[in-house]
Amino acid sequence: MIWRFGLYESTFEPQWYSHWALLAILVLPIFIGLLGAFFTPRRLFPVALACLPILLAGALLIVDYLQVGLLRWQWDIAGVELSLRFNGLSGLMLMITQWVGTAAAMYTPGHLQLTNPGKHARWLWPLMGVLISALSLIWLAVDLLTLYAALELMGLAAVGMLLLSGKPDALKAGMRYLLLALVGSLAYLLGVALLLGYWGELDLKSLVEVVEPSPVSWVAAALIGAGLALKAALFPLHGWLTPVHENAWTPVSALHAALVIKASLFMLIMLWGILLPDALFAPRLVAWLGMLAIVWGGLIAWRAESLKTLVASSTVGQLGYLMVAFPLLLGSAVSPLPGALAWEGFWLQLMGHSLAKAAMFMAVGNLIIATGESSIKGLAGTSRRLPLSLLIFGIASVTLMGLPPSAGFTAKWLLLQAMVMTQQWVAVAALLIGTLLTAAYVFRVFRYSFDETAPRHQYQPLAPGMDLIALCLALAAFALGLLAHLPLALLQGGGA
Amino acid sequence: MITLLLLAALLWPLCVAGSTVWQAYRTPAASRDYFPLLWISASWPALLLAFSGEVQWTIDAWMLGGYWELNTLSRPWLAFTALLWSLAAAHARGYFSAEQRKAQAGDQGAQRRCQRLALLWPLTLLGNVLLIIAQDIASFYLGFALMTFAAYALVLHSGSNEARLGARAYLALAVIGEGLILGGLLWVAGSAETLTLKGVREGIVAADDGALMALLLWLGFGVKAGVIGLHVWLPLAHPVAPAPASAVLSGAMIKAGLLGWINVLPLGVDGLSPALIQLGNIMLVAGLAAAFGAALYGVWQRHPKAVLAYSSISQMGMLTAMVAMGLAAPDVWSLILPGVVLFAAHHALAKGALFLGTSISEHMPRWPQPLLFALIALPGVSLTGALAAGMLSKWSVKSALYEMHHEGLIMLLTWAAIGTSALVSVCVWRQWQQRHSGGSDAFQWGAWLTALIAALVTPIWLPLPVGSVEVPPASEWLSLSWPFPVGVMVVVVGVLIGAGWRRHAVVQTLPAGDLWWLYSDLTLRGLRALRVIARACEKVKMASVTFSLALERTLMGHLKRGLFAEAWMRHHGSGLMMAFAVILALLLMWEGLR
Amino acid sequence: MIASIDYVEVGVAFCLVAAALACLFDRHLKRASSLFLLFALLMSLSWWLFDAPGLALAELVLGLTLTGGSFFYALNAFPATAEKVPHYDRSLHRWSHKVVRAVLALAWSVMIGGAIWFLLPDMAYSPTEHPLIIAAVVIVATAMGAFALHRHMLRRLMAFNVLGSGVFLLLAGMAGTMPGSQALISVGLTIAWLGTLLGVLLIRQLVSLEGLLALESDSDATGHAQ
Prior knowledge:
Helix content of chain A: over 70%
Subcellular location (chain A): Cell membrane; Membrane
Strand order of the largest sheet of chain B: 1-2
Number of domains of chain A: 2
InterPro entries (chain A): CPA3_Na-H_Antiporter_D, ND/Mrp_TM
Domain NADH:quinone oxidoreductase/Mrp antiporter transmembrane (chain A): 141-438
Number of helices of chain B: 26
Family (chain A): Belongs to the CPA3 antiporters (TC 2.A.63) subunit D family.
Membrane topology (chain A): Multi-pass membrane protein
Oligomer: heterotrimer
Helix content of chain B: over 70%
Order of helices and strands of chain A: HHEEHHHHHHHHHHHHHHHHHH
Distance between the termini of chain A: 8 Å
Number of strands of chain B: 2
Order of helices and strands of chain B: HHHEEHHHHHHHHHHHHHHHHHHHHHHH
């Protein structure tokens, strides 16, 4: 865990440009977001141009990491120690965040133009900036205080974005999400309080050295686990997820499903890795819940009436795949090879799902905008008129189904290998059933869209680039599967 | 040079077929000549090839690796086959002249029929040639299958109801036969890992289930060669096919079955398993049963070509018995093989001449009728072994059997010859009854006469190894020729008795095709039973579909109700979170304090 | 001196628990909001007792003024007819619902209490040594239970705030007032206020769109519950 999450002293100082790059990735999104609120971009290109420096800064950090290894920053502000680190894993997460964020930002002008939501839509930009900054901070932070602040910031920004659509349903769903997210963070804070009270350490690197199994660490792990599981929408605490996604704007849903819930999961796995180095049963409980999640999410998505519910429910199932890997990631009982395979499979699945889910939400958003219908039945006859959007949906679902050559396939392959090695046959069965269910709900969409008997509707033409961005994301999920060795090498660079 | 000839032998029929197609598109119907000299010449390169010496070819690029050979067996075989094809083609030009005139006059049906025949004739020939020279499984099977299926059109030619029935019987049995052959070949090839026919022979000897493989192959080729039980297509197809087609069917293609046996069965090999020897005995019995049964049944037929078909079955029965000796008494085989080849060649030409003769009696040239019918009968007389090549071939078989002391078989074969002569007499008599004059053509009778002469002097032109044919000593002539007069006497007496009692009606209703009618009746009953079973199955299917639909509805209902749990989870999110934390804490405590 | 402080602490702790319970379980919304103000004042007092004047000030500003003000801001938006009839949360719960919540709250208090028992060994000898921590445990467990129990959005928001205060109190009680915990609490207070503000804005929007009833039902957007 210490190596995997980069909780050790760095050998070299970061290069001079890394400090600036760090500043850029944390501050620039907020700044550009504020600019966006003032200038409200109507076109795709200014947005792309504005995102460029952030992407460049992220790339610079990775270059530096490849050169000098782990990067660490530490500040002491009024007696409070704040520390950040940049290793392969945070680099990967940062890249995914920035690229998916950029795609969502570039998608937004077209979406806003077509849906015409009113004046308050301008606040989407700063909220998006805050969200990206908070996410970047979560990937980098290694002290409990920064993590808490970033988590809360991210949560509030996410709620704010979800509320912008302004429909009563969205407000209700958003209120539920807000309350649960706040309470979830309080549970996390309660756990932190116990840790701080007992060991007096907020910095994870110091905590890792002093922590030992005791009732305090167990209760703290339970509280942190429950709070973060609620925020990460892990089954059975996922209830708030579907209505939230259903009523939010497309780019917001995409960002939320792709990144926000992943951040809580990331923290969960990192903190449990520190607090529960030898636990056996708690990860197994999560894994069993994960199997249920795979089946349940698949069933819900299969019977869903509305397109966005389908996509949101599929997130529940896909998170199940990640949960199933918990026993292989945590605990010292796992032999090294399956442990390493599961570790790689876990993050590959997470990244692949982020890209594919964002693409899927955009494809579905395009379909809904074009047809003006949000139900699956409303898709009838779209196979002729909107083949590109359906194609993107198909490519994204290939990743979700885990068919080759997508990232989903590579990830599930790795996970399956690890599970077969450790003889977790139930988990293998759950994985396969999940694939079947995914196929079932995906083909349900196609079945309706290939209905040729439907009357011809007048379709709203899409803004330029909306399909293209989604297609790029979906293809990126493919590329991630084909070039899986690159991210995996980055993941191992930290010494897994 | 000889390779060029080989290429020509295989490609020339293809070119001929191509030219027929070309002509069909280019030449107007009125001036179209379906059977020109070019068409007749399709088999000439093959004939030349047969007389140009022994040689081997190995062609790796061909399918699974081609291995072709002209040896002591395939040379004479190719010779008589190609000769018969050439003569039959020449005869066909005369035979179809009336139909061609009709086609040129604008009869669509005649045009189609002529076109079909002209196209598929060279293809059938090609298959026949290929299977004779092939020594690897793939080429051999390709040739055999091509010949079998292309010949379908030859049987079907006239398109009448009888022709359809005959063609259907032919096709049904051919498909069964091809299936058996393919199964047998694949089985042997798989178990012995071989691609050549020689490997097949060795594989059958070596394999544990060699007898079963041999049985499959025997029956498969037996369809062509008219093994009793599988022979039913012969008397149905021959009468309806055009005379030249009947000639090649009965003369050349039937012999392909025989060649198949000789090629794949381990004949004359020492140390066969008891099961294979047992198979040889079964073949022997089946062959003799065919030899006698066909004669007994055939004499009652009205149609001369049906009579000839039964004669073919009878003759092939004899050949089957001889081949069976290769399994049952392997030491005989090397002695008997030249006799078998000569017998086959002579029978091919003689039966060809007899079939061509049926068209002569229908379109008699203005010759003296006694001379004409004497000529028509002549190949039949030779076939009984009473004179010329027939006597030589009989003798070469008999002498081999004498040498190895199989007198019982000799006696049976001699008695079978009585049946042959009876059949020939009946055939000639029927032709006499149904004779017609007019419509004769020089090609027609020319080819017939040539075939007749070639049949009588078979040993002279057949490229057999030197010294394998010898003239029987004068003392044996009587023992070879007595079955002919006896057979004729039997027929004459029978006809006289029948005329006296005036009871033709009973005996003449025996239909051609004998067992076919039993088969078709059994098949119909079987189909009826199947239909009943199918109906029952359909009911079961309907019931299960209804049940499954109901089940699906119920399950979907349950699922939909079950999915309300989602709403429950949504409402109790915070409670669930509390419970989750408590459970996690308990679990960790329990594990940690254990 | 020590004894007097103890009495003050016990008294404050008792008052905190009483105010929290009253605030959590009063159906009269305006009264509950006023009780929350009282609770925040007591919180500020307890920060003073913890020797953290900065936090006490922050609590006064963020907790009392801003957060408490937010609740009244939300109540202000309720329709004018409410002038005569006071705003009540009229939603009723099945008893099984209540029992389960009570059991869960008990379980939480036992869980947290157990951890604290282990964490502060002197608690084992004299439970009254840290009356504020005990009060905090009770407040946290009860607020959590109330949060899970209530349907009314405003009351849930209030329960969240009480819960937050309890957590902060626990944090300060266990970790002392070292810079780290002070920073955590300040961040927490700010976030709680921001969250409450967001929630209040949301409630106002919802009331203006759908009326008061929308606040009481936790009904689904998808509409296939209840």
